[in-house]
Structure formats: structure tokens, C-alpha cells
């Protein structure tokens, strides 16, 4: 019911555009550093772990497709969503929980403003828009990280690394990763806002809501990832 009301308010004017942009900056731009760092080392680890296995079967040339497909189809969307949940989702839940505890949400209702439209909708829309962009950044930087390890450390030819990608990487793989990122963004905004909005009063209530938001959102992301993968791929 909470999600349905939020989506209904998202599709009907007026939409708080300024607050949406502010949350896109908070969720998207301020998460860029941790996403870039995580993406770089994820791509490097995938290349480092995958190269010996490929070398056993004489398929070192497929390192580029292996890294790119692993990141674009699975690791990019999932790890991006988990990192955003920990960095931004927890902050969203805590902020809304403090607003509930300090009775700011009640004050909005007394002023005739809809708290869902003012507090929840901007966060959900921002998560929905920011996650695909962050996932794309993660994928690109991860592929470059795999290139650094594969070419610079393991001696693979640079042209082979990128050239084989065009033979194995399809638009369906890229779109599938984007679909995952969109649904993960909706899950993060929905769960974190819900937990903060229904937080119990007091510091203990806000702390519990924040913890539940991160744990529930992370678990839902992993569960939902299976169902999206089974349908899209």
C-alpha cells in the first residue's frame, strides 16, 4: 500500500522537482567515489581470478568478454545497489526517522502538505534515476580495471581484450543490467523510506529503522536479482 501510494503521487502533479534534483545529487553524485573505487577493484579481481582458469583451457583471449559480461549482467547492478543502500539508503531512513521522531511529518500534515509527496516521492524518484547511471559508471570503470590487470599485469594483448567483447556482448546484456538497476533503485527508495516513515519514537527507534532498512533492502536486492535474471536472461 505504501509503494502504491508513492507511485500514485509520483505520477500526479505537482512533483517536487527541486527536492528530486537534490536527492539525485545526494544519492548519485555523492556515491560516485565509492562506486568508482568498488568498480575498479571488482574488475581487477575478476580479471585476476578468471585469467588462470581461462589459461587452463587455452582461452585467455576471452578475458575481456568474461569481465564485461560478469560486470554488466550481474556484479555491476548488484554491487552498486548494495553500496548505495549502505551509503545513501541508511541516511534516507535515518533522516525520515528523525523527521518522524521530531514530529516534522505531523507538522507537514497540519500544514496541509502530503508527507509522501514531500518526503518520500523525491527519494524514490531519485533512487530510480540514479541507480542506472551509477551502474553504468561501475561497469565502465570495472572493465577498465580488468584491462589494467589483464594487459598490464598478466600480459594479454590490449586489442584482444576489447576486440573479443564485440563478439560476445549483446545489447540484451546491457539492457538487462539497466532493467536490474531500475528495479533495485525502486527497491532501495521504497524500503528505506518505508522503514524511516514508520520508525518508532526515540533514538532507539531510529537506529532500529535504519538497520532494518539496510538489511531488508540488501536481502530484497539479492532475492529480486534471481527473479529478474531468470526472466531477462
Q: Quaternary arrangement of the chains shown?
A: single chain
Kindly provide the radius of gyration, computed on alpha-carbon positions and rounded to a whole number of angstroms. Answer: 20 Å
Please give the share of residues in helix: over 70%
Shape: elongated
Report the β-strand fraction as a percent range.
Answer: under 5%
Q: How would a crystallographer describe the biggest sheet?
A: none
Question: What's the helix-strand series?
Answer: HHHHHHHHHH
pLDDT < 50 stretches: none
N-C termini distance: 30 Å
* Mean pLDDT figure: 90
Number of domains: 1
SS class: mainly alpha
SS element count, helices:
10
E-strand count: 0
What report would you give on this structure?
It is a single chain. With 233 residues, the chain is mostly helical. The protein has one domain (2-6, 31-232). The protein is built from 10 helices and no strands. It has helices spanning 2-11, 17-27, 32-56, 63-101, 104-110, 115-153, 158-163, 165-168, 171-197, 203-232. The longest helix is centred in the middle third of the chain and has 39 residues, at 63-101. The two termini are 30 Å apart.
Amino acid at each position: 500500500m505504501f509503494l502504491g501510494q508513492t507511485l500514485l503521487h509520483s505520477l500526479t502533479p505537482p512533483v517536487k522537482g527541486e527536492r528530486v534534483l537534490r536527492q539525485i545529487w545526494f544519492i548519485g553524485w555523492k556515491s560516485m567515489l565509492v562506486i568508482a573505487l568498488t568498480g575498479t577493484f571488482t574488475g581487477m579481481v575478476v580479471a585476476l581470478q578468471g585469467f588462470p582458469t581461462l589459461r587452463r583451457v587455452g582461452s585467455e583471449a576471452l578475458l575481456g568478454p568474461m569481465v564485461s559480461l560478469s560486470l554488466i549482467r550481474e556484479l555491476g547492478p548488484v554491487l552498486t545497489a548494495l553500496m548505495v543502500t549502505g551509503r545513501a539508503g541508511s541516511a534516507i531512513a535515518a533522516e525520515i526517522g528523525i523527521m518522524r521522531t521530531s514530529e516534522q511529518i505531523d507538522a507537514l500534515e497540519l500544514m496541509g502538505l502530503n508527507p509522501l509527496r514531500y518526503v518520500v516521492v523525491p527519494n524514490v524518484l531519485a533512487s530510480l534515476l540514479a541507480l542506472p547511471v551509477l551502474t553504468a559508471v561501475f561497469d565502465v570503470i570495472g572493465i577498465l580495471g580488468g584491462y589494467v590487470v589483464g594487459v598490464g599485469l598478466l600480459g594479454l594483448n590490449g586489442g584482444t581484450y576489447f576486440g573479443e567483447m564485440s563478439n560476445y556482448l549483446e545489447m540484451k546484456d546491457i539492457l538487462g543490467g539497466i532493467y536490474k538497476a531500475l528495479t533495485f533503485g525502486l527497491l532501495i527508495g521504497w524500503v528505506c523510506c518505508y522503514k524511516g516513515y514508520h520508525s518508532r519514537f526515540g533514538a532507539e527507534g531510529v537506529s532500529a529503522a535504519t538497520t532494518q532498512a539496510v538489511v531488508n533492502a540488501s536481502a530484497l536486492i539479492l532475492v529480486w536479482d534471481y527473479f529478474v535474471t531468470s526472466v531477462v536472461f
